[in-house]
Amino acid sequence: PEDAKNFIGGCGLGTKYLHKLTDTKTDPLGENNVLVFLIGPLTGTKFFSSNRYDVVTKSPLTGIYAESNSGGKWGGVLKKSGYDGIIISGKSESPVYIWINNKEVKIEDAVDIWGLDDFELDRILKERTTKDAEVACIGPAGERLVKYATISNEGEHARVAGRAGAGTVMGSKNLKAIVVSGNQDFELFDPEGFEKFFKQYSKGMVEGTRGINAYGTSGGVAFCEELGDLPVRNWSWRTFEGTLMITGQYMAETILKKRYYCGQCMIGCGRVIKIEDGKYKTPGLIGGPEYETIGMLGSNLLVGNIQAIARFNELCNRYGIDTITTGSVIGMAMECFEYGLLNKKDLDGIELTWGNEDAIIEIIHKIGKREGIGELLGEGTRAMAKVIGSYADEFAVHVKGLEAPAHDPRGINSVALGYATSARGACHLSAFTHDFEGGACVPDLGYPEPLNRLETKGKPEYVIKFQNLMNMFDSLTCCKFVLFGGITLKQLTEGLNLITGFEFDENTFLKTGERIFNLKRLYNLQYGITRADDILPPKFLAHKRDKGENGALPNLGEMLDEYYSLRGWDKLGIPADAKIKELGLDKYI
User: Coil, strand or helix: which one is 548?
Assistant: First the structure.
């Protein structure tokens, strides 16, 4: 009960287990590493968009703390199977999958399905178990230990735990999938009060998110370019002529067929597309690309064709590789090719020029199969820079080894601090300030108006408050888009109390998020992570962009000093003893 209050579930409780079960001697791809799958107290209830799950592990890509979060329905069905979490250690001698049905757990042979892609595997395992089952699985990239392999659920709809290589760890254990099913009941503390709560806020959830429903996350592509937030030509340009042809609005006019809703979701941001003919014809209805994929595999590579990007997305989802890192490594390889650091021979004869759609498809296949140049690109940008040498570091856009998602800190300065201090490396979801600094406001965090996105003043406190709140979202586990549907800090706290019987107020709620965030920092300190690692790549700190207004180079050093002071950390970024005791973490580390 004490751990449930202190760490909630999801990434919070997962981090507590990771502290206990791994250390500096743990090889991320060794038998002693663990994969911690956890849901939270909201999962499986009617709380809005709450059927998410979190995976925590030691990253094979970065060598430090890793977590990844996925939507869909798998998390809610895990709850109905009778479990709140699964901790996996060791390694199977041969490929297996785990089958959990109403508390009964079996480890089944998977030799005959090893090698299948994520779409095929989902269908086959539902036939092999039950059509009502949900499947979380890896594709061929996870089997081949591509360092940024994903864990996917929902088959062709591809809800993905995508970042930092959780799927790689799963592959290292010869674990192909975890299949869950069940009809177990569980009690809420105050079911009548919760039902009233749900009805009270349902209408606002639908009305407040109509834009996301209509155009998905990619509805913001053009707006992000306007802000200077969109990656263009491996983060070198400010604008892209093809932007309007890769937006969610254009997708809705051309290839969009339906919306996809995760479990307990009223928003429906997921895209379901079909390309009827041509070289990118789809096999049927499949999941369409979201903003991050369009940014990293579209504008970042100078591809202005939504059908081509949909194909890139499909291939990444079938192989089970992170679209963000895939776009980043290809963008880096393109720039290295342009500057002569890589040649056609290095690239297996591929002419890897900007906007070359056929070349990008070839490269994705090579990464997914870990063949030829895919062996190097499958290691991530930090490793690529070491092998390529010369000035390749200038083109490697990562923080702590994790590639940057499709948000540019030169357009929104709080993103700089969020990237630098995130536990897993460059992550837009750890703080999630980009949408709010871009125009939204959060009155109950003390921000009735948006801050100036091109200034650093006030950003440290801003980022801290958002990080504490987002750590609670990932522990509850709940989709952050409910904020756009009118759910506030007060309502999140009320919903948690009605479900669990906790007596949290808003301060306790945020203090719990602070505890979880600091525990992640303490985990990384074991591996020597300090202020020296809370840094951005040269592209963000020192390079102004070509083509259009530059934005503002963020003053990261100034923000870090104030950030550390407000966090109760010393100037090296180490939490002080007083802060550790204040948060009650001294007993856990």
Answer: coil
